[in-house]
Every structure is written in structure tokens, then in C-alpha cells.
Design brief:
Helix content is 27%, strand content 11%. The protein is built from 12 helices and 13 strands.
């Protein structure tokens, strides 16, 4: 029972308000709670009009389901998210107008579209940490039972976008799934490696490229990391001048199949970009660990020599937004993505995990070669994510962080319906 001190006309009153538990529904995986029906304005979602494709979850519903607690930057990120829009389920403008702001408890598309629509609705809400009210949950549970329980986890993958990404400065929502991290053993399948990766929302504040000292000469041989990769990946013996300047070589870019002889046409790509690594767990690393990651030459899957323009189109996108234009390389790319994340104990968000798993399902005989030992100063030498011990009810930061009490109970850093400040809560 919560007790609030209220002062009215000079008199002090203690008002008791019962605690409300917000457990996730066991079938659809969404937190169950009443909606917040005040304060909505579409102007709170900057960029919402950047596309005519309607949102899977209407903006008012997003607000009422949890976005009222978000920062303006996070709402802008949602508004610009291609995966939050409904092109993948074919919601027509007429159907969208008929739907208005209604959730599945009050509106559904044509029967032939209902299963895909419900699966996408649940996927978007999960990915963004949005809740569902009791009536909505009841209807969704019935629909999942009708469509088949297996239809929800295999949600249609978000459309792969090649547009320039919108930088995010948002704080991740509370995790909905968590598993222990175990680096895959030699010869294990990539899907087995994928199963070891934690699924949590991204930590999307605080990134700066300078936090990852890169292109360093860590072995002291006079060649920085960029030059080392150029030399390593050249199909012919690279010509090297003074100060380890690489003047020519032959580089086959695996992303697009192009061949280059001038190193100025070649970028060295972090398969899992530095900012993606930050959002996936590297924000908690030491500077030495981030330096080791940014300059990792111990595993050829971490850094690749690729066509500069293709690398720039990739930027810091994950597989929900970008895959190599050379289709025959995509299975290898996804396998490398999983291997790097598993080896460095980096997490995935729900949408990313779904897209990677779906993509790998069509790949034959994808195995994970033996992962070399991490460079000195790795973040988790045991392969296990360290738990943060927290004091239940204490103020905390950042929103969405998780920890355990001294009794082993898991808590999340988040606000409540009656308090906007973040505390460690169940």
C-alpha cells in the first residue's frame, strides 16, 4: 500500500493508494495495465508525418500505452521508425481511416489480414515496451489462439530500409526478455549461437565515436588497425610505403562483389557498428574494452574491407534496416553479425533478433567457427553478463536498466502510473 501526504487548506491528510502490479501476460508477453487517457497530441511525435504509411499502433494508442513516459527524442524516434508502420501487413488508407485510434479490442482488418496484423501489433508493442489494457489483452489472447500460438513469435520481419538513419538519443524501454550469455563453441550452428544472445531494448543515449579509440596501432608494429585490415584483406600482396602507407592492392568487397585497387575506395567496416555495440552493451565497458573492440584483429569477422559508398549506406544500421546488396552474401553477413555479438556478449533488441532469426532460417549449413579469445580487457571473460545489485524502490538511471536485489529478485528502472521519476520496481 502506497501512502501519499496531501496538504489541503493547511491540513495534512495521509491518503492510501493500493499498489498495482503490472505483470507481463504469459501468452502475448505484454505488460497489462490501464491506459493513460490524458495529454495526447500528435505534435508530441515529431516527424510522424514524414511518411504516408500508417502506424501499426496508432499514435494515440502508443501514448496511452506508455509513450506518455517517454522523452521527446524517443517519441521522435518512434515516429520515424519504418518498422513501426504498417506497410508489411497491407493496411490500406481506407482501412486505416476506418480504424482511427482503435486497438484490436475494438477494431480488426479483414479476416485474411487479421493474423498478420495482430502479430505485427504485438511485435511493435514488445519492441517499444508498450503495455496493453485488460480488454486488449483478452482480445489478443483469443486471436493468438485462433491464429495459432506459433504465429506471434514468427512475426513478419520489418522491411529492410536503405534510407539514411535518424540518429537516436533515446533511452531504452524496460527489457521483456533476458537470457544468459554464452559464447558459442566451435562448430555450433549460428542459430545455437543466436539462442545465447540476450534480448533487451537498446540503450540509446550517450554514444560518441570518440568513446571507442579506433584505428590504433595496438601491437606497436607501425601500422594502425585500418592499415592492418587493408593488408590482411588484399587479394594480392599490398604495396606498402613509408609509415605503413598502403598505396595499392586488390580488395574484393563482400557486401557488393566490387573489386578495388585504390585503398581510398575502400572503407574498413565494423560489422557490428560502434554505435550499435554501444546500444547493445558497450556503454558499460571500460575505455580499454571499447578500444579492444574498435581495433579487434583477433577475429576476421569483426572488421572487413568493403566498398566505401556501401559502408556509408550501411552506417550504424542493424539487420532490421540494412543487409548487403549482394544477396548471396547475406547469410554469411548474418552469421558474422551473430558471431560478433555472441563473442563480445552484446545483446539484441526484439525486432533485430526476429529479423536475424528469420533471415538465418533460410540459410543452409550455417555454423559458427571457433571464436578466438577476446583481447585483454574483455568485458566478460566468463561469457556471463554481470548482474547489478540494486535497492528496491531507490531512484535510478537509466530508464530500462535492470538489476537484482540482494534476495535475487529482478527489478527494472522505470516510472509508475503515479510517479514520473524512475525507481527500481518489479
Amino acid at each position: 500500500m502506497k501512502k501519499w501526504l496531501v496538504v489541503a487548506c493547511g491540513a495534512s491528510l495521509v491518503v492510501s493508494i493500493p499498489n498495482v502490479a503490472h505483470a507481463a501476460d504469459s501468452v502475448i508477453g505484454l505488460e497489462v495495465r490501464s491506459e493513460v487517457r490524458t495529454g495526447f497530441s500528435s505534435a508530441r511525435f515529431p516527424g510522424a508525418n514524414s511518411s504516408r504509411v500508417p502506424f501499426v499502433v496508432p499514435l494515440r494508442e502508443v501514448w496511452e500505452s506508455g509513450a506518455n513516459y517517454w522523452s521527446a527524442a524517443r517519441r521522435a524516434s518512434f515516429a520515424r521508425s519504418a518498422s513501426a508502420r504498417s506497410a508489411v501487413v497491407g493496411l490500406s488508407p481506407k482501412a486505416n481511416a476506418n480504424r482511427a485510434d482503435r486497438d484490436p479490442a475494438r477494431w480488426l482488418p479483414a479476416p485474411s489480414q487479421q493474423c498478420a496484423y495482430v502479430a505485427k501489433w504485438i511485435a511493435v508493442k514488445r519492441a517499444w515496451g508498450l503495455a496493453a489494457d485488460p480488454a486488449e489483452v483478452a482480445r489478443l489472447r483469443r486471436l493468438v489462439a485462433t491464429c495459432g500460438a506459433g504465429s506471434v513469435p514468427t512475426t513478419p520481419a520489418p522491411t529492410i530500409s536503405t534510407s539514411v538513419p535518424v540518429p537516436s538519443t533515446t533511452v531504452a524501454s524496460a527489457p521483456t526478455t533476458s537470457t544468459n550469455v554464452t559464447v558459442p563453441v566451435a562448430g555450433s550452428s549460428v542459430l545455437d549461437a543466436l539462442a545465447t544472445i540476450r534480448i533487451v531494448p537498446e540503450y540509446t543515449v550517450g554514444y560518441d565515436r570518440d568513446l571507442f579509440p579506433h584505428w590504433k596501432d595496438l601491437d606497436g608494429d607501425g601500422c594502425d588497425t585500418r592499415k592492418e585490415v587493408l593488408i590482411r584483406d588484399s587479394r594480392t600482396k599490398a604495396v606498402i610505403g613509408s609509415s605503413c602507407t598502403v598505396t595499392t592492392g586488390t580488395w574484393l568487397s563482400p557486401y557488393d562483389g566490387a573489386t578495388w585497387t585504390n585503398p581510398s575506395d575502400v572503407d574498413i567496416d565494423h560489422v557490428v557498428a560502434l554505435s550499435e555495440a554501444w546500444r547493445s552493451g558497450a556503454y558499460a565497458w571500460s575505455t580499454q574494452q571499447r578500444t579492444n573492440y574498435a581495433n579487434d584483429l583477433t577475429d576476421d569477422r569483426t572488421l572487413l574491407a568493403v566498398t566505401d559508398s556501401v559502408n556509408q549506406s550501411k552506417s550504424d544500421k542493424d539487420p532490421t534496416e540494412w543487409l548487403p546488396p549482394l544477396a548471396s552474401y547475406r547469410c554469411t553477413y548474418l552469421a558474422h553479425w551473430v558471431s560478433v555479438k555472441a563473442r563480445w556478449s552484446l545483446a539484441m533488441d526484439q525486432a533485430e533478433h526476429s529479423v536475424v532469426k528469420s533471415g538465418l532460417a533460410g540459410c543452409a549449413n550455417q555454423t559458427s567457427p571457433a571464436a578466438p579469445a577476446l583481447p585483454t580487457g574483455n568485458p566478460t571473460t566468463s561469457g556471463q553478463a554481470a548482474a547489478v545489485v540494486v535497492s528496491p524502490g531507490a531512484f535510478c538511471t537509466p530508464f530500462g536498466a535492470t538489476g537484482v536485489s540482494d534476495k535475487g529478485v529482478t527489478y527494472t528502472c522505470k516510472p509508475s502510473e503515479t510517479e514520473a521519476r524512475n525507481r527500481w520496481r518489479r
